[in-house]
């Protein structure tokens, strides 16, 4: 490949794309490369690769050998890999318990994971009721001030996290979030009524890792009237499912 950023590589490559290409150039067979080799692998000029690589070094995503000046992947890549592995592990371990919860209740069940002050849907198993919750497909990211899962997570976080979650909301809505979180702290589960979808009720219980830190929540959603009528029983089922996931992950 040429050393210049020619048309064959696309003249509109932005910094993020270039950074990604440089990171993906490293393999088991090529764990460490000098500037010339790296530039050849990605088809960019040495000047461009040097500039982007130095930025990646500053972020800890690349490292540079003190003697040879060759580049290799940095330790922060391992941190990112741990995050991904954790997500995959919890999805795998939670799936059986989530399916059992769906069979017990007939409602749609969710595994929500805490991601950057929001709750991301990692798994959804649809219920079998004719009228069921079809909101929040996998990949959806919901602010912590919205929905039962967010309230459940906030209930095991500190006051600063709650304050941050409601900042920017109007006073009435912020007060409603605080009431839901207070309820969750008292009862061990959170309830939401029409937060994400009108006419849908939800119940959620927080998941904590071995250190006690929240990692997400198990939640259940269905027709509001149906959820409200069986709130106590459904909350017990969701709590049991959260306990089963915790046990499966080896968290105490």
UniProtKB/TrEMBL annotation:
Organism: Microbacterium lacus
Keyword Ubl conjugation found: no
Domain IclR-ED: 76-251
Keyword Iron: no
Name the UniProt record assigns to this protein: IclR family transcriptional regulator
Coiled-coil regions, chain positions: none
Keywords, ordered alphabetically: DNA-binding, Transcription, Transcription regulation
Domain of life of the source: Bacteria
PROSITE patterns referenced in this protein's UniProt entry, alphabetically: HTH_ICLR, ICLR_ED
A Pfam family per the record: HTH_IclR
Stored SUPFAM superfamilies: GAF domain-like, Winged helix' DNA-binding domain
Domain HTH iclR-type, chain residue ranges per copy: 13-75
């Amino acid at each position: 490949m040429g050393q210049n950023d020619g048309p064959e590589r696309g003249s509109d490559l932005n910094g993020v794309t270039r950074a990604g290409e440089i990171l993906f150039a490293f393999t088991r067979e090529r764990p460490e490369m000098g500037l010339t080799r790296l530039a050849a692998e990605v088809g960019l000029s040495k000047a461009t690769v040097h500039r982007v690589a130095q930025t990646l070094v500053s972020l800890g995503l690349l490292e540079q050998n003190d003697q040879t000046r060759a580049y290799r992947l940095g330790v922060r890549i391992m941190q990112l890999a741990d995050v991904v592995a954790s997500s995959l592990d919890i999805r795998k371990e939670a799936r059986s318990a989530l399916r059992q919860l769906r069979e017990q209740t007939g409602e749609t069940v969710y595994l929500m994971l805490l991601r950057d002050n929001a709750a991301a849907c990692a798994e959804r198993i649809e219920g079998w009721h004719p009228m069921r919750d079809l909101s929040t497909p996998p990949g959806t990211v919901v602010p912590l001030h919205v929905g039962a899962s967010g309230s459940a997570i906030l209930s095991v976080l500190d006051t600063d996290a709650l304050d941050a979650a409601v900042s920017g909301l109007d006073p009435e809505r912020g007060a409603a979030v605080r009431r839901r979180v207070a309820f969750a702290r008292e009862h061990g589960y959170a309830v939401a009524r029409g937060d994400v979808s009108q006419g849908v009720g939800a119940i959620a219980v927080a998941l904590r890792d071995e250190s006690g830190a929240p990692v997400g929540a198990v939640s259940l959603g269905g027709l509001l009237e149906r959820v409200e009528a069986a709130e106590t029983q459904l909350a017990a089922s969701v709590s049991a499912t959260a306990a089963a996931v915790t046990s499966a992950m080896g968290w105490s």
